[in-house]
Amino acid sequence: MSGLTETQLASFKENGYLVLPDYLSAEEVTSLLSETNKLLNDFPLESHPLTQFTTGDESAAHVGDSYFLNSGDKIRFFFEPDAFSTEPDPLTGRPALLKPKNRAVNKIGHSLHTLSPPFKAISLNERNAAVARSLGFVDPRVLQSMVICKQPSIGGAVPSHRDSEFLYTDPPSAVGWWYALQDAGPVNGTLGMYKGSHTGRKGGHITRRFVRKESGGTEFVENTGPALPRGMEEEKSEEVDDSELEILDIKAGSLVLIHGNVLHKSEKNTSLNSRYAYTFHVIEGAEGWEYDGRNWLQPPAGGFSKLEA
């Protein structure tokens, strides 16, 4: 297991992301889709708090109930806001779903890599460890694993963001592993990546943080710690514009590596096809990098999972 080639690594360092086609076999994709559908069909709706998830923007209200904040070592289900009627169910008084539950979920998270055998098998393995080592990780740790569903006609847009805003280490170290379980293209809300926007020259600084509020819930706050990963140059920052936006066309089975400082987004899925993807993040667990205690996601007993077979 040799990890990335020199050419692949150079592309990742230049652009802030890298698409690796056919990273998963057809059998692995089928296994993960089967597990996803089983989870979506089997969870009990009657006892669910019907927590909705939206990334929103800095001025919007953010999810922050206990069901969400305590999900780091569990498998939990978060709904699309557009899956609900504006009027409550007259019999129960609860929000009324407009879609079957398996077509109403925004995402499943956040510890599939420890609690679901099929997802664990393609997460904690030597192949991914070799990729992490080639990216420079010394003690790679896996956290925040989830299936993002992008449901047909209602899968919400995700505004431009940088992943290290949500999983901050001092200094920043996060990298996302994003696996397409179904084809992802412009019509069903694929990833849009701003080339080079992870660098200091292109404004790749982590200037805000998504944290737990002392009074409960979550919020964005100004980042007062290091804004760039170790070894990345502070350069005169230029504006990033849409000429540097690449709308990816990703085939099922592909892996997209996403630098924690690269700006990226996705549009609403207005098509009739879902866009299932599995993603987890890796942070540096070695001495000299500190996972912040204000992050919305906090480590379980025993810490985050080591990335190894």
What is the CATH topology assignment?
A: Jelly Rolls
CATH level-two architecture: Sandwich
The portion of residues assigned to helices is 10-25%
**C-alpha Rg (nearest Å):** 19 Å
The count of DSSP E runs of length 2 or more, i.e. the number of strands, is 18
The main β sheet shows up as: 8 strands, antiparallel
Class per helix and strand makeup: alpha+beta
Q: What would you give as the CATH superfamily?
A: q2cbj1_9rhob like domain
Mean pLDDT: 94
The H/E string reads HEHHEEEEHHHEEEEEEEEEEEEE
* Inertia-based shape: globular
How far do the termini sit from each other? 12 Å
**Domain tally:** 1
Which CATH class is shown? Mainly Beta
Low-confidence stretches: none
Strand content: 25-35%
Tally of helical segments: 6
Can you put this structure into words, describing what you see?
This is Phytanoyl-CoA dioxygenase family protein. Belongs to the PhyH family. The strands form 5 sheets. Strands 1, 2, 5, 6, 9, 14, 16 and 18 form an 8-stranded antiparallel beta sheet that branches. A 4-stranded antiparallel beta sheet has the order 7-15-10-13, with no helix packed on it. Strand 11 (208-212) and strand 12 (218-222) form a beta hairpin. Helix content is 17%, strand content 26%. The chain has 6 helices and 18 strands. With 309 residues, the chain is α+β, with helices and mostly antiparallel strands. The N and C termini lie close together (12 Å). It has helices spanning 6-15, 26-42, 66-69, 112-115, 117-123, 126-134; strands at residues 17-20, 75-79, 84-88, 95-97, 105-110, 140-148, 158-161, 169-170, 175-180, 191-194, 208-212, 218-222, 245-247, 255-259, 264-266, 277-284, 290-291, 305-306. The longest helix is centred in the first third of the chain and has 17 residues, at 26-42. It has one domain: Sandwich (Jelly Rolls). The radius of gyration is 19 Å and the shape is globular.
